[in-house]
TrEMBL record:
Keywords, ordered alphabetically: ATP-binding, Kinase, Nucleotide-binding, Phosphoprotein, Serine/threonine-protein kinase, Transferase
Top class in the EC scheme: transferase
Domain (Protein kinase): residue spans on this chain: 4-292
Family recorded in the similarity comment: Belongs to the protein kinase superfamily. CMGC Ser/Thr protein kinase family. CDC2/CDKX subfamily.
Keyword Transferase: yes
Pfam families: Pkinase
GO CC, alphabetical: nucleus
Lineage: Eukaryota, Viridiplantae, Streptophyta, Embryophyta, Tracheophyta
Catalytic activity field: [DNA-directed RNA polymerase] + ATP = phospho-[DNA-directed RNA polymerase] + ADP + H(+)
Name of the protein described by the UniProt record: [RNA-polymerase]-subunit kinase
Enzyme nomenclature, EC number: 2.7.11.23
Length: 324
C-alpha cells in the first residue's frame, strides 16, 4: 500500500475501517478500506482472503453503475487486506444529521430512484447487499447517491440457502430476518430501502429498536402483520412461535405517520415495507410504480440505459484488480 498516503479516518464498521487517502502516483483522492481480520482460528489468513475476494467480486460486478461506489483495486499485504475505491463524500446519515429536517417528497423520490436503480442492478446480478442503511449510502458533490460498504454482500446465485443470519443493521432488518430466516432473498434489501425512504421523509429513523424482539414489535405495530402467519414460509422460521406473531395488530399506520405523502408515494413506501416477503416490492417492481413513472421529466435524472449493457452478465475480471 506504499502507493497511498493515508489522510483522515472516514468511518468504521463491522467489516473494516475506511480512510481517505491520496494516490501518490496520480494525486487522486480515494477511499481505502482495511478489512478486519477474522480473528481466532484464521491462522493462515484464508478467511481474510475469502472476505476480500467476496467483497471485491461483488463491487467489481457492479462496476459502472452510477449508484454504486467504484472499486479501483484490492490488495492483500501480509496479514492485512485492503480495498481501494473512489472517494465520494459524506454519508446520507451525516447529511441528514447536519440537515436536521426531512427531505421534501420530490427530493426523496429522486434519491430513492437512484437507490432502487442501484439495488435493481445488484439484484439482477444476484448480489445481495445485506446491510443497506444511511451510513452505507454516500452523497457526491452533485447531490447524487452511491451505495457503498459491500462487507456483508454475497452472490445469492453462488449457493442455495441457507444463508448467514442475522444480517443487516438492526433498525433496517426485515421481519423474516428478525424471525431467524436463513432462506431470504433480495427483498431483505428492499425492506431496508423502505426504512431509508421513511427516514428521508421523516428526518428520523422509522424503527429504532433496542433489541431484535423490540424491533419486530415496532415493525408489526407500524405496518401491521400483513397476514404474516399465512405466508407459506412462516412455518419454517425458527421464531415462528413468538407471541409477537400471534398478537392482534392494527393495520398499517404509515398513512397516519406520513399524512402529506402522496398516494403514489405511499404506495411505494407501503410496498417496500410489506411484512410478508412474498408481498414486498422488489427494486424493479418499485421503479415501475406511478410514483416514479408518472414523475415529471425534470425529476427523472437517472439515465438507466447509460450503462445497462454492462449489467447483462457478472463481470469476471475481478482477479485483474487484485494485487497480492
Amino acid at each position: 500500500m506504499e502507493h497511498y498516503e493515508r489522510l483522515d479516518k472516514i468511518g468504521e464498521g463491522a467489516s473494516g475501517v475506511v480512510y481517505k487517502a491520496r494516490d501518490r502516483r496520480t494525486g487522486a483522492t480515494v477511499a481505502v478500506k482495511r478489512l478486519r481480520g477474522a480473528g481466532f482460528g484464521d491462522h493462515d489468513g484464508s478467511r481474510l482472503s475469502e472476505d476480500l475476494l467476496r467483497e471485491a467480486a461483488c463491487l467489481e460486478a457492479c462496476r459502472g453503475h452510477p449508484s454504486v461506489v467504484e472499486l479501483r483495486a484490492a490488495h492483500r499485504d501480509g496479514e492485512a487486506a485492503f480495498l481501494v475505491m473512489e472517494y465520494v463524500g459524506p454519508s446520507v446519515a451525516q447529511v441528514m444529521r447536519e440537515r436536521g429536517r426531512p427531505f421534501p417528497e420530490a427530493d426523496a423520490r429522486r434519491l430513492m430512484r437512484q437507490l432502487l436503480d442501484g439495488a435493481r442492478a445488484m439484484h439482477d446480478l444476484g448480489v445481495l447487499h445485506r446491510d443497506l442503511k444511511p451510513d452505507n449510502v454516500l452523497v457526491d458533490a452533485h447531490g447524487d447517491l452511491k451505495i457503498c460498504d459491500f462487507g456483508m454482500s454475497r452472490f445469492a446465485a453462488a449457493t442455495a440457502p441457507p444463508y448467514t443470519s442475522p444480517v443487516v443493521t438492526l433498525w433496517y432488518r426485515a421481519p423474516e430476518l428478525l424471525l431467524g430466516s436463513t432462506e431470504y432473498d433480495d427483498r431483505v434489501d428492499t425492506w431496508a430501502l423502505g426504512c431509508i425512504m421513511a427516514e428521508l421523509l421523516a428526518g428520523a429513523p422509522l424503527l429504532p429498536g433496542r433489541s431484535e424482539m423490540d424491533q419486530l414489535n415496532r415493525a408489526f405495530d407500524t405496518v401491521g402483520t400483513d397476514d404474516m402467519t399465512d405466508w407459506p414460509g412462516f412455518c419454517r422460521l425458527p421464531r415462528a412461535g413468538s407471541p409477537l406473531c400471534q398478537r392482534s395488530r392494527p393495520p398499517s399506520r404509515l398513512r397516519e405517520m406520513f399524512p402529506s405523502l402522496s398516494a403514489a408515494g405511499l404506495d411505494v413506501l407501503s410496498g417496500l415495507l410489506a411484512c410478508r416477503p412474498d408481498r414486498r416490492l422488489t427494486a424493479a417492481d418499485a421503479l415501475r410504480r406511478p410514483w416514479f413513472t408518472d414523475a415529471e421529466s425534470a425529476d427523472v435524472d437517472q439515465p438507466r440505459s447509460a450503462c445497462g449493457g454492462r449489467f447483462t452478465a457478472r463481470v469476471g475480471g475481478v482477479a485483474d484488480a487484485i494485487v497480492v
